[in-house]
Automatic annotation (TrEMBL):
GO molecular function: single-stranded DNA binding
Top-rank taxon: Eukaryota
Gene: Radx_1
Gene3D superfamilies: Nucleic acid-binding proteins (2.40.50.140)
Protein name: RADX protein
């Protein structure tokens, strides 16, 4: 059928009501958001953002309400979609934006694709990867993997991806979203090593929309975290307090979930796998810890410094 592209949509959307189908690849995926309120009568008040791209650039796509339970888990990073009967809206100004792996990619920020169950009823098709043709010109998913030896030199709030061997995972803890609020964030601390430094990655992992993965992070698993943000210098000794925290678009993968993920082709991921082959499992197991309370950043050694 006759296709359009994202760049053409941005130029012509105001003058049209119906749009030609779109062929796009998902580059980023946000956590699922629940926006239900007692006074609002919406059957399934869910919403999820995706960043999708074709040869012309990248744009946000929003999945609404009952389409979320139906499609959210099938729409993975790297998935190719054929979209028909979608709506175009002006962008919501306060949403978070992931940092693209390809800094040259054009971002269309004024509008977003809206997928609804009606008005109009969107038609979504997932194209299997083996049927995707090179002439479609869809961009590959690109990452910003860093090693532990590079971490200390990165600026505060820098966005990156990491891979490591888990040596510590803490218990799940809760933090109030706002003071006096009844809503909580669920998170846990983890350490992961990649062989490039004596220090581990310190990871603050908030529960994303992947409960099956979040609950199964164990020592000795290979952990990949994407779209993490660097948090620098919380105390007088900044080298000890650099850590990484999840963002709205973070995805977490552990051993058993890696097969077929686009990052398996990344050079730094391949280097990490080579390093793990040179390690003795028995030696690493002796250094692993699970559970317990993990105060971070650590308090000073003496009351005088405190």
């Amino acid at each position: 059928s006759k296709l359009t592209n994202l760049g053409h949509l941005e130029m012509t959307w105001r003058s049209r009501v119906h749009f030609h189908p779109l062929l796009v690849r998902i580059l980023h995926k946000s956590r699922l958001r629940y926006y239900g309120k007692p006074e609002k009568k919406v059957d399934m008040p869910y919403q999820a953002y995706f960043e999708v791209a074709d040869g012309s650039g990248m744009m946000s796509m929003v999945l609404w309400n009952s389409l979320c339970p139906e499609w959210y888990h099938s729409m993975k990073v790297g998935t190719v979609l054929l979209l028909a009967k979608y709506a175009i809206k002006t962008s919501y100004p306060f949403k978070t934006h992931p940092t693209p792996g390809d800094s040259q990619m054009k971002r269309f920020a004024t509008i977003e694709i809206s997928l609804n169950v009606r008005d109009p009823p969107t038609e979504i098709s997932i194209i299997p990867e083996e049927m995707v043709k090179p002439e479609w010109g869809l961009p590959e998913v690109k990452y910003r993997f860093i090693t532990r030896s590079e971490l200390d030199d990165l600026p505060h709030n820098y966005s990156c991806d990491v891979i490591g061997l888990v040596t510590f995972v803490g218990r799940a803890e809760r933090a109030r979203k706002r003071e006096h609020s009844e809503d909580f964030w669920l998170y846990r601390w983890a350490h992961a090593i990649d062989g490039t430094s004596d220090q581990p990655f310190i990871l603050e992992l908030f529960a994303t929309s992947q409960p099956d993965v979040f609950e199964r992070i164990h020592p000795m698993t290979y952990l990949v975290c994407t779209q993490m943000r660097v948090i620098q210098g919380l105390s007088e000794n900044p080298s000890r307090t650099v850590y990484l925290t999840t963002s709205n678009e973070s995805q977490i993968f552990i051993t058993g979930w890696h097969k077929g993920q686009p990052y398996t082709k990344d050079a730094k991921v391949k280097n990490f796998i080579q390093w793990t082959k040179s390690q003795s499992e028995a030696d690493q197991i002796k250094k692993t810890v699970i559970g317990g309370y993990y105060p971070f950043p650590r308090p000073p050694d003496s009351f005088v410094k405190y």
